[in-house]
From TrEMBL:
Residues 30-94, 164-228, 229-292 form the SH3b domain. Keywords: Signal. This is SH3b domain-containing protein. The keyword RNA-binding does not apply. It comes from Caryophanon tenue. The keyword Signal applies. InterPro entries: Cell_Wall_Dynamics_Protein (IPR052354), SH3-like_bac-type (IPR003646). Residues 1-25 form the signal peptide.
Length: 293
């Protein structure tokens, strides 16, 4: 779900994923640089002989880390996967950085699948059409997390896309988000009235699965109503799109510029969930206007 300038659908080997997780913990923001030459190779490892994932176009924006290995710059493709590019061919954009989010993508199990958990290697299973979270991907497998909290690698063919619907809180006092689908489960926080969130269907017991503030949560299904967006335009020079509806969390995932049209779902907490192609997330409602400026 959420990229800067371009969407990268890439396959990265498993050992790079492990490296990526340790690196992301140490670095809080990433610099944006542009590819300066047409046809530069994006590599799986920091060597010229490693497999080429694809070739890059001149002017492509990449999120770079501060790690350079023998002239190869480590770049971030999503929250958990990394690749390498020759550092010579990256052009700096003065002062432009983006905070590193920590999120996954919601998926459905395509079939009944048994897998080993990481790191304890326990044997667990997921059932066809179970809702899961994809945390990263490799050439042949994906790291998934079940809603029960089990993490492990499964074949790419064992998961399929799950597109969200956008729903808003209809209760005037808001609604609590719980850690599990039970009235006795721990309350994580409260959603404000009219807050729009990504909904990924219902589970037994009258609970709706949502993905909000980079986490999976559960809310009572009935008060979450489907709504239509309103057309709005970015009214500031540069609007930072965040994965959470808060300035207190470093979670900038995209940037949109003045005059760009978006589908918006305003809420009473001063934030609007917006959509613009592959760009989705939250911006302050004050940065939106009813007409292009």
């Amino acid at each position: 779900m959420k990229k800067i300038f371009i969407a990268l659908l890439l396959a990265i080997p498993m050992f790079l994923v492990a490296t990526a997780m340790s690196s992301s913990a140490a670095q809080s923001s990433l610099e944006i640089r542009l590819v300066s030459t047409e046809g530069i190779a994006l590599k799986e490892a920091a060597t010229k002989s490693s497999e080429t994932i694809r070739t890059l176009k001149k002017g492509e924006a990449l999120k770079i880390t501060n790690e350079v290995i023998a002239g190869w710059r480590k770049v971030q493709l999503d929250a958990y996967t990394y690749a390498y590019v020759n550092n010579t061919y990256l052009r700096q954009i003065a002062g432009y950085t983006v905070d590193m989010p920590a999120y996954g993508e919601m998926r459905l199990a395509a079939s009944d699948t048994t897998f080993k958990t990481e790191p304890k290697q326990l044997t667990v299973s997921m059932k066809q059409n179970d809702i899961i979270v994809q945390r990263s991907n490799t050439a042949k497998s994906v790291l998934i997390e079940t809603l029960a909290g089990h993490k492990g690698y499964v074949p790419n063919s064992s998961i399929k896309a799950l597109e969200p619907t956008i729903r808003q809180v209809s209760l005037k006092d808001g609604i609590v988000v719980r850690e599990n689908p039970s009235p006795k489960a721990r309350v994580m926080y409260t959603l404000y009235p009219n807050t729009a969130v990504e909904s990924y269907g219902q589970v037994p017991g009258g609970w709706r699965v949502i993905f909000h503030r980079t986490k999976v949560g559960y809310v009572a299904a009935e008060p979450m109503v489907a709504v239509k967006p309103v057309k709005r335009y970015i009214a500031v020079n540069k609007a930072e799109v965040r994965s959470v509806d808060s300035r207190s969390v470093d979670a900038v995932t995209d940037v949109l510029y003045r005059g760009v049209a978006v589908d918006a779902y305003p809420s009473s907490n001063g934030w609007s969930y917006i959509q613009n192609g592959s760009v989705t997330g939250y911006v302050p409602t004050s940065q939106l206007a009813a007409t292009a400026q």
